[in-house]
Amino acid sequence: MTDTSAAFALLDRIQAPEGSGRDIPDAATREIIGRAPVQTVADLDEAIARAKAAQPAWEALGHAKRSELLLAAADALDANAEALAHLLSREQGKPLNGPNARFELGACSAWLRTNATTVLEPEVLLDDENLHAELVYKPAGVVGAIGPWNWPLMITIWQIGPSLRMGNTVVAKPSEYTPLSVLAMLSVMNEVLPADVLIGISGDREVGARIASHPDVDKIMFTGSTATGRKIIESSAGNLARLTLELGGNDAGIVLPGTDPAAIAEDLFWGAFINTGQTCAAMKRLYVHDSLYDQVVDALAGIAASVPIGNGLDENNVLGPLQNKQQFDIVSRLVEDARARGARIVTGGEAAPELGELFYRPTIVADIDNDAALVQEEQFGPALPIIRYSDVDEAFALANAVDVGLGASVWSSDPEAAREAATRMQSGTVWINSHGGLHPMVPFGGVKSSGYGLEFGVAGLKSVAVPQVVSGPGRKA
């Protein structure tokens, strides 16, 4: 079976019957690739009831058995990785190669295996003659996982992997833009998981809002915009569901004086343009010292002008289209605003209609004011504004002035200076001489309007659990 036919075989498992559902287009060609089920609030209520009924038995299996089943689910993902990558590439738009579709499937397996094997031991709080107290972690119950369209498979695994590991059951709702690849991945995992432990629900925003307000949802994990995150907080007030929110970012990078532009150019580029810029923790603003400014701009423009862009199923391409028309329009508007303000479009700055409806050329914008919309708003696309600075203190002030703080980076040839500078950034993660790299054992989360709660590693397991103190007699007794 070819990779394409295997992808369609997975699609046939989960798509709506002919004549029903909602058509999902190929992001690059806009041809229809499948029909997503359109489920209702009533369907969601029934799914949550099933997940709630299945949770006690899943918890009772214990950590060792749940880990064994999650490792088997990772094996199933590996066995279907190429078919899932092809479906993902068509639906989301990201190419197979580069840090894209195949990379995303590899990350799904890696995170799931780490979730399965990470140990969370009871914490001894006090152990003396009078008192022995331990802090243990129990499952929250039913987790509602609401995923995005930019890294739909990987971020869904970030949500469901630790939740299942800790004994929760999960109802997962993918984005309306990328439901097929997520539902296909869940169907593969459900080949080895017990019934109703992991349930996918495909619906509109009304369904997502109901997850947030449902009285039987004990924990909500959401990745998406800050505006939607605020609505989830409001909706969840009635049931006091625990929240992990990974929201918008407008990540800044600062290139310090004395840095070698040639040594950092490739990493700078991919820090901004990974997944065609459609990454929450991608670099969205770059501040460069006056002494290096022209060299950095020229180096990034050279890469942007030469990087292969096109249909994701072409093995040569590493950048694809914007995933949807709404995002394409945002990028176009922000670049045009920068142009109207007198910023210099060094390369790109326009659509690429010969490639397809939603393709936009990789764009480097120089000599731009810090108050331009392209700097102050999250563009979430292939356009990087580069702001010149002469005073380092001013650069940090500008970088920290926005109301979000997911990630940030500092770039320097001096490791000690870079580490000192990193502490000045107001963000959940600060990278040194790179941007956006994640590890399944290193906690990740935002500050300010980028949300709250940590994912990954031991901290991530704790975030999908309920702490309980067990206190009893000490050694004297």
TrEMBL record:
PANTHER family: ALDEHYDE DEHYDROGENASE-RELATED (PTHR11699). InterPro entries: Ald_DH/histidinol_DH, Ald_DH_C, Ald_DH_CS_CYS, Ald_DH_CS_GLU, Ald_DH_N, Aldehyde_DH_dom, LUC3-like. It comes from Microbacterium azadirachtae. GO terms for molecular function: phenylacetaldehyde dehydrogenase (NAD+) activity. Residues 26-465 form the Aldehyde dehydrogenase domain. Keywords: Oxidoreductase. Transmembrane segments: none annotated. The active site is at E246. Belongs to the aldehyde dehydrogenase family. Its EC number is 1.2.1.39. It is an enzyme of class 1 (oxidoreductase). This is Phenylacetaldehyde dehydrogenase. Coiled coil: none annotated.
